[in-house]
Amino acid sequence: MKVKICGITRKEDAIICEKLGIDYLGFNFYSGSKRFIKPESAKFIISELKKIKTIGVFVENDLDSIKKIVEFCGLDGIQIHSEQSPVFCNKIKREFPGLIIIQAFRIKGSIPENINDFDADYFIFDSFDERQFGGTGKIFDWKILDKAGEVLKKTFIAGGVNPDNVEKIVFLTNIYGIDVASGVEISPGIKDKNKIKCLLSKIGRLNEKDA
Asked: What is the tally of structural domains in the chain?
């Protein structure tokens, strides 16, 4: 199971994640987020990393603004929060063929019927909240994942994932990965090394040499 830690705002947290073997880091460029980071700060953090994949999180941005930030920061991927139709996602995929493209969905009661129309490398299923795009700490009904089928093999589960419930996700689903923000934090944007280590331990991803 892959692990993505989202809402990185500090260099020390990013370096800890890389040392612990986290697969992806998320940098939130949505100004309305509690975990918003300026492109200049993200670029500095990313320059200190060696191999971990860096993903920019964008909410309703236009193509030009995304392109500027992606190129400025040297991101490995783009996470899109724009759910009206697959048009924007597919446009992003054509514009950035060499990057990892992740389409996020805020789940209300079921998986989107048109999900296969989105040309994304991965999906994120997160909890629906009218005021927030991710990082809510709320869990959606994981039972709907029983009907997701093959889609789960390219899907991250987000929304309230933490060291206390992550084993249940492993047991209930055959997912690609988990996307965690508030579940491993002291406060918004400030990560807790011990919580990250506990999370990894629960899914059998913590190496003793890194602990």
From this structure: 1
- pTM recorded for the entire structure: 0.93
Residue type, 185: E
The Cα 185–Cα 5 span in angstroms is 10
- Amino acid identity, residue 93? K
Q: Could you tell me the residue range of the domain that residue 145 belongs to?
A: 2-202
CATH number, residue 63: 3.20.20.70
> In angstroms, rounded to a whole number, what is the distance separating the alpha carbons of residues 173 and 143?
9
- Tokens linked to 111: 């998986």
142: CB partners within 8 A, 6+ apart: 157, 168, 169, 172, 173
User: pLDDT, tens digit, for every residue of 76-103?
Assistant: 999 998 766 899 999 999 999 999 999 9
Tell me if 210 is assigned to some domain.
Answer: no
Identify which of 42, 163, 108 has the alpha carbon closest to the alpha carbon of residue 57.
42
Question: 26: helix, coil or strand?
Answer: strand
- 211 lies in some domain: no
Task: Spell 80-101 as b/e; 16+ CB within 10 A means b.
Answer: bbbbeebebbbebbeebeebbb
